[in-house]
Structures are given as structure tokens and as C-alpha cells.
């Protein structure tokens, strides 16, 4: 099953009602055959602009992020359900890319001093390249004189 991230903006409601909204959303994910990995509450805050939803204008919302796995076929019905829920102001579903396998870290590599680790060497090389580019951008006035003749 693919992983998804759902960004939810709920109306500003008391805590028990927001819990009910989250339970309704979670139950729809479970009914679709999915499971929830994580729910993050980002709190209540002002919206960046006025959001019109279900014949009312909202200037403040409760922000939540839900990470879940669900079959792709059930995603349309889930999105349709969220669009009809009157407590949801805005919802956006993103597909989370698969985790790329990172090279295995060995204890031998970690015990090396930082200057000898391959990651640190790569970072130093990137830093040197940036410094060289900045040095090329600077205007250097080379008059060939070691002193300024018109200054005392």
C-alpha cells in the first residue's frame, strides 16, 4: 500500500469535538482498509488568507497532519468524504515517496575521526567549491603597486 500524508484544517472547535472529527476521519481510513502511522497536532493558528468552506468564511483553523497507508483505489472515496465533512475547512493529500535505501553504516566508519569520514570529506569539498565561487564573484583591483601614492 502506498503511504500518504493528509494535511487537515478543521474549524476552531473545543477539544472534545476536534477529537470526534479526528475519530471520524480515522474510522474512514480504517474502513477503506488502511492504517494510520502518525497524527500530528500543529495547534490552532490564523490561516494565511480567508478560506470559504461550506458557506462560511474562516480566518482561523486547527492544523493536523495525518500519515497513513491506504489502497489507491479507496483514495477518491476518502477525499470525497472529507469534502462533504462540514468541520473540515481544507484538506490536501500528498503521496509520500518510498524511502530510498541508504548505505549501511558500520561501526568502523563511525569510529573514525571526523576528518577521515567520507561524509565529512564530501561536505568539506562542497564548502571549498562554494568558497571558490564566492572568490570568483568578488571584484579584485590589482594595480601592481604595494602602496597608495595619493594617500599619506
UniProtKB/TrEMBL annotation:
<dbReference type="GO" id="GO:0003735">
    <property type="term" value="F:structural constituent of ribosome"/>
</dbReference>
<keyword id="KW-0687">Ribonucleoprotein</keyword>
<dbReference type="InterPro" id="IPR014717">
    <property type="entry name" value="Transl_elong_EF1B/ribsomal_bS6"/>
</dbReference>
<protein>
    <recommendedName>
        <fullName>Small ribosomal subunit protein bS6m</fullName>
    </recommendedName>
</protein>
<keyword id="KW-0689">Ribosomal protein</keyword>
<dbReference type="InterPro" id="IPR035980">
    <property type="entry name" value="Ribosomal_bS6_sf"/>
</dbReference>
<dbReference type="GO" id="GO:0006412">
    <property type="term" value="P:translation"/>
</dbReference>
<dbReference type="GO" id="GO:0070181">
    <property type="term" value="F:small ribosomal subunit rRNA binding"/>
</dbReference>
<comment type="similarity">
    <text>Belongs to the bacterial ribosomal protein bS6 family.</text>
</comment>
<dbReference type="InterPro" id="IPR000529">
    <property type="entry name" value="Ribosomal_bS6"/>
</dbReference>
<dbReference type="Pfam" id="PF01250">
    <property type="entry name" value="Ribosomal_S6"/>
</dbReference>
<dbReference type="GO" id="GO:0005763">
    <property type="term" value="C:mitochondrial small ribosomal subunit"/>
</dbReference>
Amino acid at each position: 500500500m502506498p503511504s500518504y500524508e493528509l494535511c487537515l484544517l478543521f474549524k476552531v472547535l473545543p477539544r472534545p469535538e476536534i477529537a470526534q472529527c479526528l475519530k471520524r476521519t480515522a474510522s474512514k481510513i480504517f474502513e477503506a482498509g488502511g492504517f494510520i502511522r502518525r497524527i500530528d497536532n500543529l495547534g490552532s493558528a490564523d490561516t494565511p488568507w480567508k478560506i470559504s468552506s461550506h458557506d462560511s468564511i474562516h480566518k482561523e483553523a486547527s492544523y493536523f497532519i495525518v500519515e497513513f497507508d491506504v489502497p489507491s483505489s479507496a483514495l477518491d472515496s476518502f477525499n470525497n468524504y472529507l469534502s462533504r465533512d462540514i468541520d473540515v475547512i481544507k484538506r490536501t493529500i500528498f503521496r509520500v515517496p518510498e524511502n530510498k535505501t541508504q548505505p549501511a553504516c558500520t561501526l568502523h566508519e563511525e569510529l573514525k575521526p571526523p576528518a577521515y569520514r567520507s561524509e565529512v570529506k564530501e561536505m568539506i569539498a562542497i564548502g571549498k567549491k562554494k568558497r571558490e565561487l564566492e572568490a570568483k564573484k568578488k571584484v579584485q583591483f590589482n594595480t601592481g603597486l604595494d602602496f597608495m601614492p595619493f594617500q599619506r
